[in-house]
């Protein structure tokens, strides 16, 4: 029997080793029951990367296939690969690093993921350079949306705000919130003129949102800021939360957003989580 090509075998070995070192909580998945697999299951990685379980299994088995750069980027994000590891898998399969114009896939240190979880029942989440939601705790998912359950490319605060009708119900001050978020996105986009991810997201937003088509030409820029936010929950009703935005020292483009509520409202959030 012909053995797989060396690059394919190396990619398979790397994928398996990185899968086995992650726990479901590291990527926002529930632990489940009767868990015999060390680390994540193959189907969980496939779900996170938005590819089929069969295709992921083929890759991990080291068969001689050539995944696209898009698939490699999705796997790098799903498995929390750092920039060096991401470059390595591109070089293994395509003989060259990813294009210089596209910034490396974002990941979070395990300590930050653990901190977000520990902040429960106070809502908290982390967003990346394009406002992709990189981590969220149970309270944040209960009050906003279940980020890990959404398709990978839709785990983005702008996409949820402008493209998902539920955002207009949840965000009491939707027009002001949405306009400010778009202004922050424009400010961030100016710092990454060569990153096509910004252009791709903006194109998607233009296609679905008349507000984006109307507001973007105004060239409004908005700085990061802390403040208050009003949310509407189907069970808890209207809540007013104070939020604090903290930029991570290792990557200032990643923002940890934490929320606090009045004692009575915090007690209700705690009871909702059970």
Q: Which characteristics define this entry?
A:
single chain, 274 residues, alpha+beta, five-stranded antiparallel beta sheet, 13 helices, 14% strand, Lambda_DNA-bd_dom_sf, MLTR_LBD, Cro/C1-type_HTH, Helix-turn-helix transcriptional regulator
Overall description:
The chain is 47% helix and 14% strand. It contains 13 helices and five strands. The radius of gyration is 20 Å and the shape is globular. InterPro entries: Cro/C1-type_HTH, Lambda_DNA-bd_dom_sf, MLTR_LBD.
Oligomer: single chain
Order of helices and strands: HHHHHHEEHHHHHHEEEH
- Helical stretch tally: 13
- Record field, number of beta strands: 5
pLDDT below 50 for ≥5 consecutive residues: which ranges?
none
Amount of beta strand: 5-15%
Largest sheet: 5 strands, antiparallel
Class from secondary-structure proportions: alpha+beta
Distance between the termini: 55 Å
Strand order of the largest sheet: 2-1-5-4-3
Over the alpha carbons, how many angstroms does the gyration radius reach?
20 Å
What topology emerges from the helices and strands here?
Elements: H1 6-21, H2 42-49, H3 53-60, H4 69-78, H5 83-94, H6 110-118, E1 124-127, E2 133-136, H7 138-143, H8 157-163, H9 165-170, H10 174-191, H11 196-208, H12 210-215, E3 227-233, E4 237-248, E5 251-261, H13 263-273
Antiparallel strand pairs: 1-2, 1-5, 3-4, 4-5
Helix pairs in contact: 2-3, 2-4, 4-5, 8-11
Care to give the gist of this entry?
By secondary structure, this protein is α+β, with helices and mostly antiparallel strands. It contains 13 helices and five strands.
């Amino acid at each position: 029997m012909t053995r797989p090509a060396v690059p394919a075998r190396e990619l398979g070995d790397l994928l398996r080793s990185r899968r086995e070192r992650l726990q479901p909580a590291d990527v926002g998945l529930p632990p489940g029951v009767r868990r015999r697999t060390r680390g994540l299951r193959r189907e969980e990685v496939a779900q996170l990367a938005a590819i089929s379980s069969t295709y992921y299994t083929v890759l991990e088995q080291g068969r001689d296939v050539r995944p696209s750069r898009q698939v490699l980027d999705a796997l790098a994000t799903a498995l929390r690969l750092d920039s060096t590891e991401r470059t390595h898998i591109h070089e293994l399969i395509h003989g060259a690093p990813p294009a210089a114009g596209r910034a490396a896939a974002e990941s979070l240190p395990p300590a930050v993921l653990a901190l977000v979880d520990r902040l429960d029942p106070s809502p908290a989440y982390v967003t990346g350079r394009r406002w992709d939601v990189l981590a969220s705790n149970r309270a944040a998912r209960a009050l906003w949306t279940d980020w890990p359950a959404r398709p990978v490319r839709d785990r983005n605060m702008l996409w949820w705000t402008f493209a998902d009708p539920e955002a207009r119900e949840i965000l009491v001050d939707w027009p002001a919130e949405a306009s400010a978020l778009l202004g922050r996105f424009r400010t961030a986009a100016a710092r990454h003129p060569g990153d096509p991810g910004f252009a791709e997201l903006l194109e998607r937003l233009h296609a679905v949102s008349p507000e984006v088509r109307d507001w973007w030409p105004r060239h409004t820029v908005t700085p990061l800021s802390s403040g208050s936010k009003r949310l509407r929950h189907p069970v808890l009703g209207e809540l007013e939360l104070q939020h604090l935005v903290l930029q991570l020292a290792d990557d200032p483009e990643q923002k940890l957003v934490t929320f606090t509520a009045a004692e009575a409202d915090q007690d209700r959030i705690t009871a909702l989580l059970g």
